[in-house]
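Attaching the record inline, Q. Sequence:
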Amino acid sequence: MSAPESVIPATAAAPFVINCVAVDDEPLALGLVCSFIEQTPFLRLVGRHESAVAALRSLHERPDAQLLFLDIKMPDLSGLELAKVLQHGPRVIFTTAFNQYALEGFRVDALDYLLKPFDYQEFLRAALKAKTYFEMKQASETPAPASAPLNPPVPQPANAPEDDYIYLKVEYQLVRVPLADIVYVEGLKDYVKVHLATQTRPLLSLTSLRGMEEKLPASKFLRIHRSYIVGLGHIQSVGRGTVQIGGETLPVSDGYREGFDQFFSRWK
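Structure, as predicted:
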């Protein structure tokens, strides 16, 4: 008989101690994850459950839960489905025996992905990644001291130059991408492909094309289609309703044609 599901009473959190919940329908796998959590000094086990349904019910009573070690393939409600329900709740590290779920884990913004069977060293690597995330989050939310800073910010003029790079979330890290390197951006539902001049493989980032449009300066980029933003410095030629860029022919849709025509009218 499997051990009864339990919820550990809430206690005051120490600095940089992460409250964890483990969820797995296999008792042995659940016990292993709980054992790993308990032997890690900066993790605190506050709940363990053998189903995602039980975890969902419990998490409503555990607002202090910060991190889920979550199996994916479970009956009734999968770990992926639970992660989507808890989109603004605890962060997730997936634990699964099936590597085909890696992309889905990326789409729900998981912190990491542990492929079973994993040892404590692999577990600790993922846990340290979570620790870094929560420390940075805590630092960003800590109010600045009331005293005047030693080096007060220098006011920027209204015509200050734009940054020449952006940061994109790629897999589980922020990647610095020079604006001059971006050839075009392709929207793919929940994420974007950023095609670069310096590498053949595009970057895959969990953001919308609209979000990218807001990040990119209008002086250097132009949206030409519901699925494409192009780097103006990389356009090779312009045809009737098309753009040649990066060895590809991209369409200009009717909804963006007016802005496109206005931009290129200066050279006509």
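The chain has seven helices and 16 strands. The longest strand covers residues 43-49.

More tomorrow.
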